């Protein structure tokens, strides 16, 4: 073990999509998340980077996407995040099944996992996602976005990610180094190929669980797969301590990289999953007022000097609005 402050849990999850408008429509209108940032992939500025979150972009709530339109379809396999799960209030899964029927969303039978009810489904690119019914406490830090989904059913940040790994042991030891505690093991259910699912819990209120499943099933990155999972290291000091702790496990984390809304360190864990450490500050309101989050294309740093060129290369997208959707009914 190390002296690094334990991570509170997941900061964000970044995935690969295909058509950007289809991605936008699904995550905003169908699932009811707020577009809190419309930007570009800072390593590939010809590609959008969308951030969908709660009403305020609270750490632990943002699902982000690179819509690489020309990339092939992906396949979930070993060395990947196989499923991303979100919390929803207890009693809301009937609402979600009805909504999925209305919007033509592909979903599976509910399963029970560690005493909680889970509704698995897929987004339009085939990305495996889950809703987990939980008791949301009165002091929960998330702020539901209610433009399309009422508060009593709205998604309330991350519940967990599931990792598929050929050899889980080194990753499980790493999770311990990061401050996760093993809290249970049970027989795997559904479409997961492993025999046993092991759950690890962080210290925070949202995005606190990482589940590990053994599998040697091959996969490939592409549409419908997770690119990386980011964990909260709230301050620079927290991040530097965690970076040192990760290095002590024989891994090779990058230097800190300024991502404009947070500062990041990246590394591949032992099983091949790309992990990120992300700070809480400065946050999504550092360059847009809260009321206007996602309202314009934000080009961080020197990319602003290339706005005309960058905008010309991006597909036009329209952010769904409730009043527009109502008018179309």
From TrEMBL:
Keyword tags: Dioxygenase, Oxidoreductase
CDD domains associated with the record: PcpA_N_like
Domain VOC: start-end pairs: 9-134, 157-280
Cited InterPro entries: Extradiol_RC_dioxygenase, Glyas_Bleomycin-R_OHBP_Dase, Glyas_Fos-R_dOase_dom, VOC_core
Protein name per the record: Ring-cleaving dioxygenase
MF-aspect GO terms: dioxygenase activity
Record lineage: Archaea, Methanobacteriati, Methanobacteriota, Stenosarchaea group, Halobacteria
Pfam family membership, one: Glyoxalase
């Amino acid at each position: 073990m190390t002296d690094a402050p334990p991570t509170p849990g997941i900061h964000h999850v970044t995935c690969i999509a295909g058509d950007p408008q289809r991605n936008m429509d699904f995550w905003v209108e169908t699932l009811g998340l707020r577009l809190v940032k419309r930007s570009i992939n800072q390593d590939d500025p010809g590609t959008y980077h969308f951030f969908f979150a709660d009403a305020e972009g609270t750490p632990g709530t943002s699902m982000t996407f690179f819509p690489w339109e020309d990339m092939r379809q992906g396949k979930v396999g070993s060395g990947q995040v196989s499923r991303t799960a979100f919390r929803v209030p207890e009693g809301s899964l009937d609402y979600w099944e009805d909504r999925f029927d209305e919007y033509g969303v592909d979903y599976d039978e509910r399963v029970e996992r560690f005493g909680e009810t889970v509704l698995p489904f897929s987004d339009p690119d085939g990305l495996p996602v889950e809703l987990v019914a939980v008791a949301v406490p009165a002091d929960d830090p998330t702020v539901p976005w209610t433009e399309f989904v009422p508060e009593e059913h709205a998604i309330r940040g991350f519940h967990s990610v599931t990792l598929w790994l050929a050899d889980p042991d080194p990753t499980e030891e790493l999770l311990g180094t990061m401050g996760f505690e093993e809290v249970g093991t049970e027989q795997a259910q559904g479409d997961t190929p492993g025999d046993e699912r092991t759950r690890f819990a962080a210290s925070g209120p949202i995005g606190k669980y990482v589940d590990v499943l053994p599998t040697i099933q091959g996969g490939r990155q592409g549409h419908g797969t997770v690119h990386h999972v980011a964990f909260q290291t709230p301050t620079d000091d927290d991040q530097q301590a965690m970076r040192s702790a990760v290095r002590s496990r024989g891994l090779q984390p990058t230097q800190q990289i300024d991502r404009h809304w947070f500062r990041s360190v990246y590394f591949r864990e032992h099983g091949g999953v790309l992990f990120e450490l992300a700070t809480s500050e400065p946050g999504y309101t550092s360059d847009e007022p809260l009321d206007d989050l996602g309202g314009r294309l934000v080009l961080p740093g020197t990319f602003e000097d290339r706005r005309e060129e960058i905008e010309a290369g991006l597909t036009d997208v329209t952010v769904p609005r409730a009043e527009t959707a109502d008018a179309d009914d």
